[in-house]
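#structure-requests
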Amino acid sequence: MSAMEGSDGDYVRLEHVEDAGNSDVGIYIFLLVAKFVIGEYISPFLNWLSNAVDPRLLALMIFGSMSLFPIVLLPSSPSMWIAGIAFGYKIGFLIVLSGISMGVTLPYFIGSLFRERIQSYLEKNPEQASIIRLASEGNFFHQFKAVTLIRLSPFPYSILNYAFSVTDIMYLPYFLGSLVGSIPDMLLSLYSGILLRTLADGTGNPLLLARHRIPYEVAGFLACLVIAFAATMYAARTIQTKQKIKEPKQQLSEEF
């Protein structure tokens, strides 16, 4: 009896074979496209970055961009990717950590110049304002823990820098909490750059890509991804719990 004329089980098995074939074709096409993009665009850019830009100048550019971008509400993730691509784990981490340190410090002090505008924004976004209020109460440890949790949560990073500046939170717990809360995103961005560099190197040496570096890089990237996701979920759940405990409908003017 043929597969087309057989029982329902035969049809199911035939459908499974077809699905597997379609999946293999999809993966093959994806790999071809990825290889083309990496070979034609990413690899030339990385080669130019390695040969044309002095490493010390590049490190300074990354530090400068991560220090200044938060002031104008621009994301710093591309700078962290480049740090991972160009400098790897250790040096890249130190450069990014230095950049984040300055990137959270400058808006904190500059924000006092735009106090009315920031308060107006928070009044229009009461849910975000209630989250910010969690960090402005209590002692040093409470403020540090609250800032860390808020940094881990899916709150707009650049806006958060300015929002903290109009609260009663002290600089030191804000600074330390911002650094600790930024670590998962920092590691994930660095690993993204490192993995991209590994894939670009592998286009010229497939054996190296397949057997030596890529399994470790992918494992590291996936570990960072899981940690970042788990930290975000934990922070969001904790903040929601704390918000439910707070008394509702408090005026912003009483808090700031």
